[in-house]
Design brief:
The protein has 448 residues and is an alpha+beta fold. Among the domains are: 75 residues, 2-Layer Sandwich (Uridine Diphospho-n-acetylenolpyruvylglucosamine Reductase, domain 2); 197 residues, 3-Layer(aba) Sandwich (Vanillyl-alcohol Oxidase, Chain A, domain 3). The protein is built from 12 helices and 18 strands. The longest helix is centred in the first third of the chain and has 14 residues. The structure holds flavin-adenine dinucleotide.
Amino acid sequence: MGTTAGTPPLPKFALPDNLVTAAIRPGDPAYEGVRHTYTRSGSPAAVIRARHHQDVADALAHARSAQVPVTARSGGHGISGRSTNDGGLVIDLSRLNTVEVLDSRSGLVRVGAGARWGDVAATLAPHGLGLSSGDTGDVGVGGLATAGGIGLMSRLHGLTIDHMRAAELVLADGSVVRTDAAHEPDLFWAVRGAGANFGVATAFEFQAEPVRDVTVAVTVYDAADAAALLTRWGAAVEAAPRALTSFLTLIAGRSGKAVAQVMTVYAGSDAAQVRSALAPVLSAGPVLRNQAFVTPYHELLPAGHEPQRAQQQLTVSRSGLLDHITLPAAEGMTALMKAAGMVQLRAVGAAVNDTPPTATAYSHRTQNFSLMAATVPALLKDLDQGWERLHPHLNGLYLSFETRTGRQQLEEAFPGPVLDRLITLKARYDPDHLFDNNFALPSVPYSH
Ligand SMILES: Cc1cc2nc3c(=O)[nH]c(=O)nc-3n(C[C@H](O)[C@H](O)[C@H](O)COP(=O)(O)OP(=O)(O)OC[C@H]3O[C@@H](n4cnc5c(N)ncnc54)[C@H](O)[C@@H]3O)c2cc1C
């Protein structure tokens, strides 16, 4: 931030000595590179680039005493842009990005919250290991692993949180905890789905899976009859072997003709198995282009580490889950795409639904598809009208793809007893609601 000649520089936001060396503040040359996220511009009073737990604890204590907002940031790829703020502190975890293989035989790995999933995949690959995380290598570990993690092998390996074995967090009172199934198990349950409400996660341990080459089909379908295409694609995906996971994006193409861009990943490279698994998906509709190739999994997830400058224009999004893609649901999604521009479906189901709904705070274990619709703010009204029509066909919500955070969204993300249990735990772990920037929990249960 420059100053015009003759204007005295603004006084820097006062920080205690122990935070100054980790802080980037307005006026510092590095500030422009850390103030924004992928979807939102921000003007924090200081970004603390944490080097260890103590920096996190000191930043929390200072935010509390200065009475300014505080937010954690891992990869800055939160779709709602909640990892920056105006006038508060951002705790940037990007320096806590170590990826270590603790035991290559069992697959136990330790990952810093500030690592990007692309770097995780690249580090695990030489060990023949991998973790299904998401479709984008630049997404941060901390944001995804505290919410769910719907990845390109989700039907085979489940959600990312299903592989979590331990988490290290700095709590609101500055204490550092390592939580796992035996230590603070309630907290471990809450972190896996509602983590941003409970502390700043600094590292995780995961059980990685043996992962080598995958076969990828990138297919563009003519979606003139989008509803028929969606229902057939949905049925084919549900019937497919677990090794197959497919993500579909439905858009109004440049010429006004709707197309569906589909990425289907088969975890394996046996040609006969791949052909037989892919055939029903490929015949879901008229194929305009198709390219299939075998690749090491990690090459699907490069992490470019581009500077974040609110470059994503589709900044409003709606999220839902579907048990099945019925014709009325497919018609609703088609209308939504026409009104708002973009609809994305990610396959969940299969291994995701092997985990009991009570095992993690992400409790949606019957659905087969995650849906996101996103648009530019100018089309918000159209998005919401289309969403209203589709809503009766949805069952639950994945919080990472939703930019609203009202009561209805909370109740859909955390149905019934899940929300009640989270509210009870919030009172135990964050009684002053320091961590309220991502699907904030109310202080008392809603009256049902
Ligand atoms: C291009 C793109 C593709 C995506 N694809 C997928 C996908 O395929 N599957 C999927 O499941 N998700 C996907 N997502 C959603 C993504 O998982 C979430 O947006 C996730 O929160 C991003 O993580 P981050 O660390 O980069 O986010 P950040 O912006 O750093 O943080 C997001 C939120 O999490 C909180 N948070 C971040 N780190 C921590 C921490 N260490 N401790 C506590 N709270 C924390 C922040 O305060 C903020 O509220 C995608 C997002 C984008 C932008």
